[in-house]
Amino acid sequence: MSDDCPFCAIVRGQASASRVAEGTHVVAFMDLRQAVPGHVLVVPRAHVETLYDLPPDTAAEMMQLAVRIARALRDADDPPGLNLWQSNGDAGGQEVPHVHLHVQPRQHGDGLLGLYPHGPPAPSPRDLLDGMADNVRRQLAAATSSLTTSLP
Asked: pTM for the whole thing?
């Protein structure tokens, strides 16, 4: 836990929040700043700054709870759309340095998250996509290899 983190204060019960659900490793509550009505945040109980440092069991529980909340939002209000949104670092738009997943029911014309201000980008050339995919596969293989060599 971090003493100056607003999400840690919520998890500890030292700051008020409209809690939605809790799990072993995660807590969900209404976002104080409702970008769209029904905007929920899912956060780990432990202070973890970014997705990169999130333990696999906590990541799995975050996503499972987000899916349950998404279904509950659908059943409650039947929105025509929904976003799951997660940001890391300044360039990614992360405002609170405690990893969190936004669950946002969407309405047509709500003005949230205009992803392509200049219109959707043109498809990338296949050789560029294949090269990027190869790079990611190499990194995944290296990470898997380091995991298996470090096991007892």
From this structure: 0.85
Catalytic residue list contains 98 = no
CA 112 vs. chain centroid, Å, equals 16
Beta bridge partners of 44: 26
Instruction: Give yes or no for residue 56 having a pLDDT over 90.
Output: yes
From 25, 39, 98, 100, the catalytic residue: 100
The band of 116, judged by pLDDT with boundaries at 50, 70 and 90, is confident
DSSP H or E segment with residue 76: helix 56-77
SS3 90: helix
Mean pLDDT of 11-23: 96
**DSSP-assigned letter for residue 117:** T
pLDDT-based confidence at 150, cuts 50/70/90? Answer: low
Identify the CA nearest to 40 among candidates 31, 32, 49, 53: 31
The helix/strand/coil state of 130 is: helix
Q: Which amino acid is at 36?
A: V
Residue 87, SS3 per DSSP: coil
Res. 42: pLDDT tops 70? yes
CA dist., res. 66 & res. 26, Å (int): 10
Strand order from edge to edge, sheet including 40-44:
19-22, 26-30, 40-44, 101-106, 81-85
